[in-house]
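Morning!

As promised:
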Amino acid sequence: MARHDHDHGAPPSDTALRVKALESLLIEKGLVDPAALDALIDTYENKVGPRNGAAVVARAWSDPAYKARLMDDATAAIAELGFTGRQGEHMVAVENTARVHNVVVCTLCSCYPWTVLGLPPVWYKASPYRARVVKEPRAVLAEFGVTLPEQVEMRVWDSTAEIRYLVLPQRPAGSDGLDEAELAELVTRNSMIGTGLARTPGALRAKTEAAE
Amino acid sequence: MNGAHDMGGMDGFGPVEIEKNEPLFHAEWERRAMALTVAMGAHGLWNIDMSRYARENRDPLGYLADSYYERWLYGLEVLLERNGLVTRDEIVARMQALVEPGS
């Protein structure tokens, strides 16, 4: 909160008040429309999120031709499901296998595939993850409860302002015969960043029962 | 451009802090700061690289001390001032007016 004191000479400020002041000025000047602001918030709180990405993953697990298109041109394949827009204009899909595990970061900022995952969690935007996952990915994954065999190659992808990555997690054991909607339930947000694995059907059942 | 944001490989930040059942926003002002930034970006007066430069080309201590949406707010204010749309003096005056209506 002291930020503006030392570099701009403003009196002690409260960030919430500052945002309120800025919003009222921008509305007054006709630069933003309050209804458009509410619509943007609604979009990112309720419409765009990791369920989009889960639908993409479930389709790729179910349909080999779709998976081939996803690996070839992820932006176009994701658009087939209707997910397009800002912060997802140049998508690349990377596939986890028994031999390779992919993890996504943005060391410089917080670049993230909004169209398929929504807005990023705080840890993704915070210094420890950005600084460390490129240097000690296994140690960072362990903090997420993920431990992979030593022989699995780790690939860490550093996003840019343009290119955004979607991890295609490994299809879990015991998921044969599930339809796309059921498969999508197994796909977690973190499994599409690489800091998690897709749930097994058994783990999903246990979670559902615990919640009941 | 180098700077505090260029932190890939840097030691000393400690463990990743993972919040369980994390909400999308942690305060109402974060919602508004996100929406204001995205809405102003839609005018096409600046692109993503200019936004990044506005957020990142600053004193390292300020960058590191700010939360994520505070950085967005900082960058937005820089861009608004640079484009002659809103000055920081106007923001401060409006803050005072909001706290002390009628003064």
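Chain B has a mean pLDDT of 94.

Hope this helps with the figure draft.
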